[in-house]
Amino acid sequence: MHVSERAKAERLRIELLKARQAKATTKQLKELLRSAGKVSDQTWHFEGEPPGPVATTTAIQSSNYSGSGTARFGAVEPSDESIPFAELHPELQTLLKAQLQKPGDLSAVVETDDGFLLFLTRERTARILHVTSLYIPKQNYELWLHRQTTTSANQNAAK
User: Fold this and answer.
1) Domain residues for 119?
2) E strand or H helix at 27, and its extent?
């Protein structure tokens, strides 16, 4: 019933893998995803990871000015918009941790109850995983049944 939607997701994944082999940037890969359907950006943060960035106060001077400021070094801190990675289904956590190691990495096609997902790594640190995901909805049963009935009627009329 959902063969065409899954096939669309698999074809796109193959196209993205070929583009990546041809040295496409992560931004270009994201645009390919965007051209295929509904995309969204998501950031998850890993809990219990090493402490955040180190703040260092540094004095700066020049012949024209002087001042001091704080520079932060290290991983990006989880933002208010990030979600704990632990809230994902354990199987999805395992898949994403294994397959999304660096920017440009793609996940396998993930089937959910109502659609198919494909994830593209934008950023991965010890603290966060930032992805762009494509969602391809499954046909609902009524629409599928209607199309089957229409197709059968058209085939019978052609005979």
Assistant:
1) 3-47+54-158
2) helix 26-36
Residue 46 to residues 41, 115, 159, Cα–Cα distance (Å): 17, 26, 60
Number of domains observed in the structure of the chain = 1
Phi, psi of 148 (to 5 degrees): -65, -45
Listed in sequence order, the residues at least 6 apart from 19 whose beta carbon sits closer than 8 Å to its beta carbon are 28, 29, 32
**Whole-angstrom Cα Rg for the chain:** 23
Residue 139, SS3 per DSSP:
coil
Model pLDDT, residue 139: 77
pLDDT of residue 5: 87
Phi-psi region of 121 (alpha: psi -120 to 50; beta: other; left: phi over 0): beta
* Strand positions, DSSP E, the chain: 38-45, 54-61, 66-73, 83-84, 110-111, 115-124, 128-137
Q: Is the pTM of this model over 0.85?
A: no
The pair of three-digit structure tokens given for residue 133, joined into one six-digit string:
């995901």
Mean pLDDT by runs of 10 across the 159 residues of the chain is: 82 94 93 90 80 48 48 44 90 94 94 91 95 88 64 64
Cβ–Cβ under 8 Å, residues 26 and 124: no
